[in-house]
Amino acid sequence: MGGGVSTYASKEEALADGKTQQEINEYLKKFTINNEILNVNWFEEKMGQKISNVTIREQEKIGGVSGTMNFFNITFKESSETKAIVIKSAAPNTPPHRPTMGLGREGFFYNELATKLSTKFPNLIPKHFYATGSMEDGSMVIILEAKENAVPGGTFFGPGNPGNFAIKDTLEEMCKGNPSDLEICNKTFDYYAKIHSAYWKSSTLLEKKWLKGASWIQGQEKEKWEGFQGMAAGMWKMHKDLIAKGEPKIKWNAHLVKCIDAAMSKTKWETYITEFNVSKTFTLVHGDAHPHNTLWVNQRSENATLTLIDFEFIGVGSPSQELGQFMVLLEPEKRRANEKKMVDEYYKKLIDNLKALNGDDFDPGYTIEECWDEYVKGCAGKVAWIIPIFAMRMPAAGQFYHDMLAGFLEDHIKNPEEDMPMVRV
Asked: Residue 1: its pLDDT value, please?
C-alpha cells in the first residue's frame, strides 16, 4: 500500500484487491479514526479541497496524555502543494473521564475562537483545517497543520519533568542549540499576554458555555464545579488515610500538607462565587499551562518560533494564574531568581496589547499588584488540585509536582490558614 490511503474506501475493496487480512488490519490501524476510514474522500469532505494523494508521515508526538495523533502528508490537486497535517482525535467516552471534564471543547475552540486569535496574533496557535467536538461524550476530530522540526517546549525543562521521562536518554542531545527553560518561559509569557488580551472581560466568552468556567463565574452549574472539586478532595482524603497508616504514595512535605488541608477546608461554592464572578477580572485562558503544551518549531534555525497547543481545558479565568502554574515547573532556585521580573514583563506586555487592541485610553482595571497576587494564589490553588490526583494515579509525576509546589509554598505561603487560597480547578 506504500502508505497511501487513496486506494481503498472500505475493507471489502481492499480484500477484492488481494490484500491479506494482516495488511488490512495494519491499514485500518493507521487510517481509521472513530470508526471512519481515512480515504481521500474523507479528507476532501473535511478539508473542503480536492486532494490527489494522502500518505503516512513518519512522525510521533513526544509526551502528553491528551488524544491520539495521526500524521499525514496531503497533496492538493489544484496547486500540487503537499502539506504536513496532524489529526488529533478522541473516541467517544475514551477514556471515561473525557465527557466529565468536557474535553471535547478543543473542537469548539478551533471552530469559534481560533480564527479571531490567529488574525489578531499570527503564529500564536496552529492553523486548523477542520474541527468538531462533543461535550456530551468527549469525542473530537481536529485537522491541524503539523509543525515542522518541532519539539515540545517542555523538552528543555530537564529530565525530572514528567513529560521527559520517556526521552531522558536523548534529552541532552535534543537540547543542544535550542532555548533554555527560562527562554521558553519568557516566550510563553509573551504569548499568554496575547491570548489573555484578546477577550479581556468579554461578554462573548460568557455566552460560550463549553468554555471551562464560563458558567461557574455566572453562578451556574454548581454541580459540575463540585464534581471537579470532588475529584481532588476524594483523592486527598485517600492520601491522608495512607499517610496516617504510614503507607504514603509519595514523600510528603509537612508544610505542603498543611497548605492543601487549608485549601480544601476553604473550598466551598459560596466562597467561589464571591471570589470569582463577572465583576472580577476574567479573560480567555489556556487552562492547562505547562511547557509541554508549547511547541518549539523550526528548531535550531533563524525561523525558530513558539506555538501554543492543546486547548482541551480552554476556559474563562484568572490570567496570571497561568503564569504561576507554568513557572512552578522551573527549578526552585531559578524560579526564585526570575519570577518577579518575568511577571512584571508579562504585565507590561499585557497592558501594551490591551491598549493596542482597545485604544491608548483603555483602562484594564488590573494592577501589577493584582497580577502578582494572582500569580501566587492562582498557582498555589491550581496545583493543590493537580497534586492529589497525579500523586494517586501517577506517583512519579505527582512527586515532581509536589516537590516544585513545596518550594513555591515555602516562598509565598507562610501561614497556610491565612494565606492559602481555596483549591482551583
From this structure: 34
